[in-house]
Specification:
heterodimer, A: mainly beta, 49% strand, B: 5-stranded antiparallel beta sheet, globular
Protein backbone atom coordinates (compact mmCIF):
# COMPACT_ATOMS: atom_id res chain seq x y z
CA UNK A 1 0.00 0.00 0.00
CA UNK A 2 1.64 3.24 -1.12
CA UNK A 3 -0.98 5.62 0.28
CA UNK A 4 -0.89 7.81 3.38
CA UNK A 5 -0.97 5.69 6.50
CA UNK A 6 -2.16 6.79 9.92
CA UNK A 7 -1.91 5.02 13.23
CA UNK A 8 -3.89 4.33 15.30
CA UNK A 9 -7.23 4.41 13.50
CA UNK A 10 -9.12 4.90 16.73
CA UNK A 11 -8.07 6.21 20.13
CA UNK A 12 -10.15 6.55 23.28
CA UNK A 13 -8.51 8.43 26.11
CA UNK A 14 -9.45 9.96 29.40
CA UNK A 15 -9.51 13.70 29.75
CA UNK A 16 -6.13 15.01 30.85
CA UNK A 17 -4.11 12.24 29.23
CA UNK A 18 -1.60 12.78 26.45
CA UNK A 19 -2.00 11.13 23.07
CA UNK A 20 0.27 10.80 20.07
CA UNK A 21 -0.68 9.99 16.49
CA UNK A 22 1.57 8.94 13.67
CA UNK A 23 1.40 9.64 9.95
CA UNK A 24 3.44 8.02 7.21
CA UNK A 25 3.09 10.01 3.99
CA UNK A 26 3.48 8.80 0.43
CA UNK A 27 7.20 8.20 0.16
CA UNK A 28 8.13 10.75 -2.48
CA UNK A 29 5.94 13.51 -1.04
CA UNK A 30 7.85 16.22 0.77
CA UNK A 31 4.82 18.09 2.08
CA UNK A 32 2.81 16.76 5.00
CA UNK A 33 -0.34 18.32 6.44
CA UNK A 34 -2.39 17.75 9.57
CA UNK A 35 -6.10 18.55 9.61
CA UNK A 36 -8.84 18.14 12.17
CA UNK A 37 -12.39 17.25 11.25
CA UNK A 38 -15.42 17.33 13.53
CA UNK A 39 -18.73 15.71 12.72
CA UNK A 40 -20.54 17.36 9.84
CA UNK A 41 -17.74 19.78 9.08
CA UNK A 42 -15.00 19.97 6.52
CA UNK A 43 -11.40 19.37 7.52
CA UNK A 44 -9.72 22.30 9.26
CA UNK A 45 -6.05 22.96 8.71
CA UNK A 46 -3.74 22.56 11.71
CA UNK A 47 -0.18 22.63 10.40
CA UNK A 48 2.08 21.58 7.56
CA UNK A 49 5.67 20.57 6.95
CA UNK A 50 7.90 20.80 3.97
CA UNK A 51 10.49 18.11 4.57
CA UNK A 52 11.35 18.47 8.27
CA UNK A 53 10.50 22.17 8.51
CA UNK A 54 7.17 23.15 10.04
CA UNK A 55 6.18 26.07 7.84
CA UNK A 56 2.72 27.03 8.94
CA UNK A 57 0.51 26.63 11.99
CA UNK A 58 -3.15 27.41 12.37
CA UNK A 59 -4.46 29.36 15.33
CA UNK A 60 -6.38 26.14 16.07
CA UNK A 61 -3.07 24.59 17.08
CA UNK A 62 -3.03 25.54 20.74
CA UNK A 63 0.05 25.13 22.92
CA UNK A 64 -1.23 21.70 23.94
CA UNK A 65 -0.65 20.51 20.39
CA UNK A 66 2.74 19.78 18.94
CA UNK A 67 3.74 18.23 15.65
CA UNK A 68 7.08 16.95 14.50
CA UNK A 69 8.60 15.52 11.37
CA UNK A 70 12.16 14.90 12.49
CA UNK A 71 13.61 13.25 9.41
CA UNK A 72 11.28 14.62 6.82
CA UNK A 73 9.47 11.32 6.51
CA UNK A 74 6.83 10.30 9.07
CA UNK A 75 5.21 12.83 11.37
CA UNK A 76 3.71 12.73 14.84
CA UNK A 77 0.99 14.88 16.33
CA UNK A 78 0.83 15.02 20.11
CA UNK A 79 -1.99 16.43 22.18
CA UNK A 80 -1.20 17.06 25.81
CA UNK A 81 -3.76 17.25 28.59
CA UNK A 82 -6.59 16.25 26.28
CA UNK A 83 -9.97 17.92 26.62
CA UNK A 84 -13.37 16.70 25.47
CA UNK A 85 -13.32 19.37 22.77
CA UNK A 86 -10.33 17.62 21.22
CA UNK A 87 -12.57 14.74 20.17
CA UNK A 88 -12.41 14.70 16.39
CA UNK A 89 -10.96 12.93 13.39
CA UNK A 90 -7.33 13.87 12.85
CA UNK A 91 -6.36 13.63 9.21
CA UNK A 92 -2.95 13.60 7.66
CA UNK A 93 -2.29 14.40 4.02
CA UNK A 94 0.77 14.60 1.82
CA UNK A 95 1.64 16.18 -1.48
CA UNK A 96 4.49 17.19 -3.72
CA UNK A 97 5.70 20.72 -3.23
CA UNK A 98 6.18 21.93 -6.76
CA UNK A 99 3.22 23.59 -8.44
CA UNK A 100 -0.20 23.07 -6.99
CA UNK A 101 -0.83 19.40 -6.70
CA UNK A 102 -3.48 17.42 -4.97
CA UNK A 103 -3.06 16.39 -1.37
CA UNK A 104 -3.74 12.73 -0.64
CA UNK A 105 -5.33 11.96 2.68
CA UNK A 106 -4.96 9.07 5.05
CA UNK A 107 -7.87 7.33 6.70
CA UNK A 108 -7.56 9.46 9.80
CA UNK A 109 -7.32 8.80 13.53
CA UNK A 110 -10.62 9.08 15.37
CA UNK A 111 -9.97 10.51 18.85
CA UNK A 112 -12.58 10.26 21.58
CA UNK A 113 -11.87 11.98 24.87
CA UNK A 114 -14.05 10.73 27.72
CA UNK B 1 -13.63 36.06 5.89
CA UNK B 2 -12.01 33.75 3.44
CA UNK B 3 -14.06 30.60 3.21
CA UNK B 4 -15.42 28.01 0.91
CA UNK B 5 -19.07 27.17 1.29
CA UNK B 6 -21.73 25.06 -0.32
CA UNK B 7 -25.22 26.01 -1.39
CA UNK B 8 -26.96 22.80 -0.28
CA UNK B 9 -26.07 20.50 2.59
CA UNK B 10 -27.84 17.45 1.09
CA UNK B 11 -28.65 16.22 -2.38
CA UNK B 12 -30.75 13.20 -3.24
CA UNK B 13 -30.75 11.81 -6.79
CA UNK B 14 -32.05 8.76 -8.58
CA UNK B 15 -29.54 6.19 -9.76
CA UNK B 16 -28.59 6.93 -13.33
CA UNK B 17 -29.37 10.62 -13.13
CA UNK B 18 -26.73 13.32 -13.29
CA UNK B 19 -25.74 15.11 -10.09
CA UNK B 20 -24.55 18.67 -9.71
CA UNK B 21 -22.89 19.79 -6.50
CA UNK B 22 -22.18 23.48 -6.08
CA UNK B 23 -19.60 25.42 -4.16
CA UNK B 24 -19.00 29.13 -3.60
CA UNK B 25 -15.65 30.55 -2.64
CA UNK B 26 -14.80 34.01 -1.43
CA UNK B 27 -11.05 34.34 -1.88
CA UNK B 28 -10.42 35.80 -5.30
CA UNK B 29 -6.73 35.01 -4.86
CA UNK B 30 -7.43 31.27 -4.83
CA UNK B 31 -5.89 29.66 -7.86
CA UNK B 32 -6.34 25.96 -7.28
CA UNK B 33 -9.45 23.99 -6.41
CA UNK B 34 -10.06 20.36 -5.58
CA UNK B 35 -13.14 18.22 -5.13
CA UNK B 36 -12.92 15.46 -2.56
CA UNK B 37 -15.28 12.59 -1.80
CA UNK B 38 -15.51 11.32 1.74
CA UNK B 39 -17.25 8.13 2.73
CA UNK B 40 -18.27 7.49 6.29
CA UNK B 41 -15.30 6.76 8.54
CA UNK B 42 -12.74 7.35 5.81
CA UNK B 43 -10.42 10.14 4.80
CA UNK B 44 -11.21 12.46 1.88
CA UNK B 45 -10.52 10.93 -1.51
CA UNK B 46 -9.31 13.08 -4.38
CA UNK B 47 -11.77 13.28 -7.28
CA UNK B 48 -10.67 16.05 -9.59
CA UNK B 49 -8.87 19.38 -9.48
CA UNK B 50 -8.82 22.54 -11.56
CA UNK B 51 -6.49 25.50 -11.77
CA UNK B 52 -7.71 29.04 -12.07
CA UNK B 53 -6.48 29.37 -15.65
CA UNK B 54 -9.12 26.84 -16.69
CA UNK B 55 -12.91 26.96 -16.59
CA UNK B 56 -13.67 23.30 -17.18
CA UNK B 57 -11.99 19.99 -16.61
CA UNK B 58 -13.30 16.52 -17.23
CA UNK B 59 -12.50 13.23 -15.65
CA UNK B 60 -14.12 9.85 -15.73
CA UNK B 61 -17.85 10.55 -15.21
CA UNK B 62 -17.00 13.82 -13.45
CA UNK B 63 -16.67 17.38 -14.68
CA UNK B 64 -15.61 20.41 -12.69
CA UNK B 65 -16.65 23.87 -13.79
CA UNK B 66 -15.04 27.03 -12.49
CA UNK B 67 -16.63 30.45 -12.85
CA UNK B 68 -14.16 32.99 -11.53
CA UNK B 69 -16.47 35.91 -12.26
CA UNK B 70 -18.95 34.80 -9.62
CA UNK B 71 -16.47 32.68 -7.65
CA UNK B 72 -18.41 29.49 -8.15
CA UNK B 73 -17.29 25.90 -8.53
CA UNK B 74 -19.41 22.91 -9.43
CA UNK B 75 -18.96 19.18 -9.67
CA UNK B 76 -21.05 17.25 -12.14
CA UNK B 77 -21.33 13.50 -11.81
CA UNK B 78 -22.76 11.69 -14.81
CA UNK B 79 -24.93 8.60 -14.43
CA UNK B 80 -24.79 8.68 -10.65
CA UNK B 81 -24.34 5.29 -9.01
CA UNK B 82 -25.04 4.07 -5.47
CA UNK B 83 -21.29 4.00 -4.88
CA UNK B 84 -21.23 7.75 -5.39
CA UNK B 85 -23.15 8.24 -2.15
CA UNK B 86 -20.83 10.21 0.13
CA UNK B 87 -20.09 13.71 1.36
CA UNK B 88 -18.43 15.90 -1.23
CA UNK B 89 -16.15 18.76 -0.29
CA UNK B 90 -14.67 21.47 -2.41
CA UNK B 91 -11.39 22.93 -1.26
CA UNK B 92 -9.40 25.92 -2.37
CA UNK B 93 -5.81 26.94 -2.13
CA UNK B 94 -4.75 30.56 -2.23
CA UNK B 95 -2.22 31.87 -4.65
CA UNK B 96 1.30 30.56 -4.52
CA UNK B 97 2.67 27.11 -4.08
CA UNK B 98 2.57 27.13 -0.30
CA UNK B 99 -0.41 27.11 1.89
CA UNK B 100 -3.07 24.79 3.03
CA UNK B 101 -6.39 23.77 1.58
CA UNK B 102 -9.51 25.50 2.88
CA UNK B 103 -12.54 23.24 2.92
CA UNK B 104 -16.23 23.96 2.89
CA UNK B 105 -18.79 22.12 4.99
CA UNK B 106 -19.65 19.52 2.40
CA UNK B 107 -22.70 18.25 0.55
CA UNK B 108 -24.09 14.84 1.34
CA UNK B 109 -25.08 13.02 -1.83
CA UNK B 110 -27.59 10.20 -1.51
CA UNK B 111 -28.29 8.01 -4.50
CA UNK B 112 -31.63 6.22 -4.57
CA UNK B 113 -31.67 2.86 -6.38
Amino acid sequence: DTGVSQDPRHKITKRGQNVTFRCDPISEHNRLYWYRQTLGQGPEFLTYFQNEAQLEKSRLLSDRFSAERPKGSFSTLEIQRTEQGDSAMYLCASSLSYKNTEAFFGQGTRLTVV
Amino acid sequence: GESVGLHLPTLSVQEGDNSIINCAYSNSASDYFIWYKQESGKGPQFIIDIRSNMDKRQGQRVTVLLNKTVKHLSLQIAATQPGDSAVYFCAEKSGGSQGNLIFGKGTKLSVKP
